[in-house]
Structures are given as structure tokens and as C-alpha cells.
């Protein structure tokens, strides 16, 4: 009897050691996997665009995704703080701020924000769904679709440290910027092994951009001064000097990425035209998500359908006024509103960009008024870019 008891005790001890070993190995395994996940799986997307080109809308398409930490225009703080400087001089400060935010080092805002601050001090914080959900704000889940207004009412008073804490929990960091004019400034980020940066270049017909800029003349005056290096003087873009710079930068970015294509840009650049997005929202969204390695959930798809068809919750305010029925009208509105004289001027300034990006110039007022004449040409197929960057569904 004694022998049997001893044996079973030994067996029990043996089994306990075995179990402990298994638990230890399992814990180690998951830990290692967790670490390697962190290193390799983060995706950094920069939506590179220009004022009044639909980038807030595109930003929302990413911001509402439960895997995405999104900030709109973090470099706004750089420009506001150093408003007497020029876009060219500020470019590297913008680049470095972007890099820090991509790596969730939010202390970079120490240079631009007061010491005693909370989440609501961040420019346009409430359009960032990630700043409206746990762990940044306890009122919403990250899978919720959260409107700017609801978020603003509930989430503004949380401590600033929550921004960094939240950022670290996401697999995808997406930033939207209109304050960068030169792709080469981003080379060091594109080759940085701690980053996995992809550039989503959003463009829009310059004539439609001007029409939209005319509705926001005051709001753009300070930025215009920085683009034109006026030492802090606000200016109206009456001679389209800012548009000239904007168009020049689109050419620079697009040509660098598609014609000079340094090898590190392979699969890291995608150009989207706002007009294509408006006429086929779901198709374009799927391509952008594919580029970003994001999955479209049923809930997001339903929300996107709603906002592009003008109904359902969340479609009232914000940048969601596009309905697919009047999508063509929205794209074409400039033809009814701008004078032929103005259109000629814009075309003069932006000719290179328009030819490159597929926006047909008009020669006569007759063409301006003939709305059956489609001025958005089909995307060019001859580019290296389309065959290798864009994956067809
Ligand atoms: C947080 O932000 C709100 C709104 O801007 C402000 O009223 C409040 O004083 C801020 N709190 C702190 C601790 O900074
Ligand atoms: C810029 O403006 C400030 C005043 O706002 C002035 O003191 C400074 O001299 C100006 N700099 C240049 C280069 O004109
Ligand atoms: C895309 O994301 C999935 C997980 O959702 C991951 O397994 C895969 O490796 C990612 N692909 C790329 C190219 O990053
Ligand atoms: C889309 O709109 C429909 C009808 O108004 C609504 O039932 C649905 O919940 C909306 N979807 C989302 C995700 O908001
Ligand atoms: C499109 O615009 C035209 C002229 O501005 C207008 O008459 C028409 O009702 C609009 N269509 C829609 C669907 O909004």
C-alpha cells in the first residue's frame, strides 16, 4: 500500500512538472509572437494631398476603421507656431513630426502645445475615431462609428497622455497632410527600417479645387502666406500663385513615384483621383484598403454606403455631403460657377499637372457648358505605376 501511494505521489508530481513546463513554454511562445508581431505588422499610411481636395473625406474612410489610429493634419501645429516661415523651410520640421507620430512618440507636440494640455488641444482631434474610443475615451468602443459631434461632446477632457497610449494599441497609423510639397523629403522615412510607410497621393481637378477654395478664402489666407513666404502676412490667392505651387508639387510627387521610381517606393505609392472615388466609391475604397492591408467589415461597408448615398446616421455633417446621384454634379460644379476667363488662368498655371493626371483642358466656352463632355480622362494604363502598384479586383 505504501509503495503504491508513493508511486502515485511521484506520478502526480511528474504530471505537475509537465504541466508547469507546458504552461511556461506556451507563455514564452505567445510572448515571442507578440513581440515579433509588433515589429513587423505596423503599417504607416500618409495621405498626401492638398487643400480642398477631398482629403478629409478620405481620412474618414480610414479613421473609422477599428484597426486605424488616425490624425488629421498634425503638421498644422508646426505651421501655426512658425507662421512667419515658409513651406520650404518648415518641410523638415513637418517631416520629423510625422515620423514621431507614426512611431507613437507624441512628445513631439511638446514643441507646439502648452504644457498643461488635454486631448482637445490637438487640431481636429474629434475627427479621429481612435481618440473617441477606448483606451483614449471610455465612452465608445473602437468598432463604433463615431461622429465628430458626439465625440466632441464627450471625449475632449481626457489627458493628453491618452493619445500616445491609444496610438500604441493600433496596427495601422494613418496621417493626412496637405503641408508637404516634395516627395524626396520623405525618402528617409521610406527607407527607415523601423517604419513601414506607404504614400496615398490624393489629387483633384485643379478647377474644382479653385472653386472650393473660393468658398474658404479667409480660412486659407494664413497658409497661403506660408506657401508664398510672405513673412506672416495673410494673402488671398487671387493670381493663383498658391495653385501654381500646389500643381507643381503634384507633378513632382507623381513623377518621382512613377517615372523615377526609386526601388524603395515599389508597392509604397498609390495615386487616387478624387473624381474616381466619387464616381465609384466602393471600388476605390477597396483598392485603397488593399493597398493599406485593411479589411472592409460589413459595418464599415454599410456606413460607407450610407455616407456616399446621403442617408443614415453620420451623414448629416462633416465632409460627407457627396451623394452618388449628384456626384457628377459635384465634380462638375466648377463648370457652372467659374468664369471661362478664370478657368483659362487656372489651366495656364496647372497645365502640366492636368495633362499628367488626366484632366482635359477646355478651349472654348462651348466646351465648358457642354456637360456631356467628360473632362476626367480614363486613367492611363501605360504607366509602370498602374501595372505594379494597383491590384485589380
Ligand atoms: C481640457 O480641455 C477643456 C476644453 O478645452 C478645458 O476646458 C479644460 O480646462 C482642459 N483641462 C485641462 C486639465 O487642461
Ligand atoms: C518679418 O516680420 C517681422 C514683424 O512681424 C519683422 O520684425 C521682420 O523683420 C520681418 N522679416 C523679414 C525678413 O522681413
Ligand atoms: C496583412 O495583414 C495580415 C493580418 O491582418 C497579415 O497576416 C499580413 O502579413 C499582412 N500583409 C502584409 C503584406 O503586410
Ligand atoms: C445605414 O443606414 C441604414 C438606414 O438608415 C441604417 O439602418 C444603418 O444602421 C446604417 N449603417 C451604419 C453602419 O451606420
Ligand atoms: C445637377 O445640376 C443641375 C444644374 O445645376 C440641376 O438642375 C440638377 O437638379 C442637379 N441634379 C441633381 C441630381 O442634383
From TrEMBL:
Transmembrane regions listed in the UniProt entry: 7-27
Cellular localisation: Golgi apparatus membrane
A biological process from GO: sulfur compound metabolic process
Major localization listed first in the record, in broad terms: Golgi
GO MF annotation list: N-acetylglucosamine 6-O-sulfotransferase activity
Enzyme Commission designation: 2.8.2.-
GO cellular component, one term: Golgi membrane
Domain Sulfotransferase: 44-356
Pfam family, one: Sulfotransfer_1
Transmembrane helix is among the record's keywords: yes
Domain of life: Eukaryota
Keywords of the record: Carbohydrate metabolism, Glycoprotein, Golgi apparatus, Membrane, Signal-anchor, Transferase, Transmembrane, Transmembrane helix
Protein name, as recorded: Sulfotransferase
Record organism: Microcaecilia unicolor
Gene: LOC115458890
Amino acid at each position: 500500500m505504501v509503495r503504491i501511494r508513493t508511486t502515485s505521489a511521484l506520478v502526480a508530481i511528474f504530471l505537475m512538472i509537465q504541466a508547469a513546463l507546458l504552461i511556461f513554454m506556451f507563455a514564452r511562445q505567445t510572448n515571442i509572437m507578440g513581440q515579433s508581431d509588433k515589429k513587423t505588422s505596423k503599417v504607416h499610411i500618409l495621405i498626401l494631398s492638398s487643400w480642398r481636395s477631398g482629403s478629409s473625406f478620405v481620412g474618414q474612410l480610414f479613421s473609422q476603421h477599428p484597426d486605424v489610429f488616425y490624425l488629421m493634419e498634425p503638421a498644422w501645429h508646426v505651421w501655426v507656431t512658425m507662421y512667419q516661415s515658409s513651406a520650404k523651410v518648415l518641410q523638415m520640421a513637418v517631416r520629423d513630426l510625422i515620423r514621431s507620430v507614426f512611431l507613437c512618440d507624441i512628445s513631439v507636440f511638446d514643441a507646439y502645445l502648452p504644457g498643461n494640455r488635454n486631448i482637445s488641444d490637438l487640431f481636429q482631434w474629434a475627427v479621429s475615431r481612435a481618440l473617441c474610443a477606448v483606451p483614449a475615451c471610455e465612452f465608445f468602443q473602437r468598432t463604433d462609428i463615431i461622429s465628430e459631434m458626439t465625440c466632441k461632446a464627450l471625449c475632449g477632457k481626457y489627458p493628453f497622455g491618452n493619445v500616445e497610449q491609444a496610438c500604441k494599441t493600433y496596427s495601422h497609423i494613418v496621417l493626412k497632410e496637405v503641408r508637404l510639397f516634395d516627395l524626396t523629403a520623405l525618402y528617409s522615412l521610406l527607407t527607415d527600417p523601423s517604419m513601414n510607410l506607404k504614400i496615398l497621393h490624393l489629387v483633384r481637378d485643379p478647377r474644382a479645387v479653385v472653386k472650393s477654395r473660393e468658398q474658404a478664402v479667409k480660412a486659407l489666407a494664413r497658409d497661403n502666406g506660408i506657401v508664398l513666404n510672405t513673412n506672416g502676412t495673410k494673402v488671398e490667392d487671387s493670381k493663383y500663385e498658391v495653385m501654381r505651387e500646389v500643381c507643381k508639387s503634384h507633378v513632382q510627387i507623381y513623377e518621382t513615384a512613377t517615372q523615377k521610381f526609386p526601388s524603395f517606393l515599389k508597392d509604397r505609392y498609390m495615386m487616387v483621383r478624387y473624381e474616381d472615388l466619387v464616381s465609384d466609391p466602393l471600388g476605390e475604397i477597396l483598392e485603397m484598403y488593399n493597398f493599406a492591408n485593411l479589411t472592409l467589415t460589413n459595418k464599415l461597408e454599410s456606413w460607407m454606403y450610407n455616407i456616399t448615398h446621403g442617408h443614415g446616421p453620420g451623414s448629416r455633417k462633416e465632409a460627407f455631403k457627396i451623394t452618388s446621384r449628384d456626384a457628377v454634379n459635384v465634380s462638375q460644379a466648377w463648370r457652372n460657377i467659374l468664369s471661362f476667363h478664370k478657368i483659362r488662368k487656372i489651366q495656364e498655371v496647372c497645365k502640366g499637372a492636368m495633362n499628367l493626371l488626366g484632366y482635359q483642358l477646355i478651349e472654348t466656352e462651348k466646351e465648358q457648358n457642354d456637360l456631356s463632355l467628360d473632362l476626367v480622362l480614363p486613367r492611363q494604363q501605360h504607366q509602370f505605376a498602374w501595372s505594379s502598384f494597383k491590384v485589380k479586383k
